[in-house]
Write a structure and sequence with these properties.
By secondary structure, the chain is an alpha+beta fold. The chain has four helices and five strands. The protein has one domain. It has a five-stranded antiparallel sheet with strand order 4-3-2-1-5. β2 and β3 form a beta hairpin.
């Protein structure tokens, strides 16, 4: 199992009970430089783990925009070799909390 640090999360009242659109969550695992994308709930739930290179493709940009999470991509670009302490400090300074999803 890997730890994915939540870097963006948003939930709005969906128009349908098993919405494929809300909530939205982005997590990041510094150990293998991968992202966890989660959308929806109930029968509309979807989730995927992608390597950083693929997560940066334009088709995934809508999630970063919806969750105002481009700051984390900038962090990765400007900070080589992120470790646990660095990731936790940056996330806590931006979001005021540390939330981890195990996957």
């Amino acid at each position: 199992m890997k730890d994915f640090y939540v870097i963006g999360k948003k939930d709005v009242e969906p128009e349908i009970p098993n919405s494929p659109d809300w909530p939205k969550i982005i997590g990041y695992c510094y150990e293998n430089n991968s992202f966890l994308f989660i959308e929806g709930n109930g029968h509309g739930f979807n989730g995927i783990v992608l390597p950083e290179l693929i997560a940066r493709e334009p088709r995934w940009d809508r999630l970063f925009k919806a969750l105002d999470a481009h700051w984390f991509l900038n962090l990765i670009d400007s900070t080589p070799n992120l470790d646990k302490t660095s990731v936790e400090n940056y996330i806590k300074s931006k979001t005021n909390t540390i939330e981890i999803i195990k996957s």
